[in-house]
Amino acid sequence: MEIKTVFLIFGIVLAVTAVVVSFVGLRVKSFPSRGALIGMLVFAVALVIGTTTFAVKLSVQEQEEREHGETDIPGEEASPATGEEASATPLKIPARY
């Protein structure tokens, strides 16, 4: 399984867990019991640690891919082959009156 897939799974489960706990907490007056609180805290901490771990791993992997030029990163523009294309047209700033 790819790092990005694992990161997305952890992130989605973390977000869904937060929404469910908020919903249950707003609806049930006696929520949470002592055991449920400890269990939820352990589960939430595990999700946060997993999400941040795979976020860092994914960012390191994408940085290495950028440095070595192995693949195009989605959402990034390809840099021009020569510097001439980027600076061929000067930037025109309108004058203020």
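Above is the first protein from milestone M3; the second protein from the same milestone is given next.
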Amino acid sequence: MSFDRIERISGEVMRELSGILREIKDPRMKGMVSILAVKVAKDLSHAKVILSVMGTEEDKKSTLSALKSASGFIRRELSGRVDLRITPQLSFEISDSIEHEIHISKIIENALKGSEGKNE
């Protein structure tokens, strides 16, 4: 299987999962959930979904718990939307990369404000 095909499948799975996650009405899903990446295995048996959840640590844990318990539903919905012979088993992982980027941006912004005050 070519690398391009896996990339296309990953992109399609990512698009469809975004729509499916918007439809989930679980009260444990708190905060804003964004899919950062989907990594589909070469044999299409497994897909790792990397998410970003804006909120507290408790929000992240409850959202991950909700997604794990709804993984069967999500996989069934995905099988109806993506035309694949094998629908991958989904695993969810939360990444703090966006929050880390926001933190770094604030540090840079504060440093620039401090250097502007010294130049005047």
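Note on the second protein: The longest helix spans residues 97-119.
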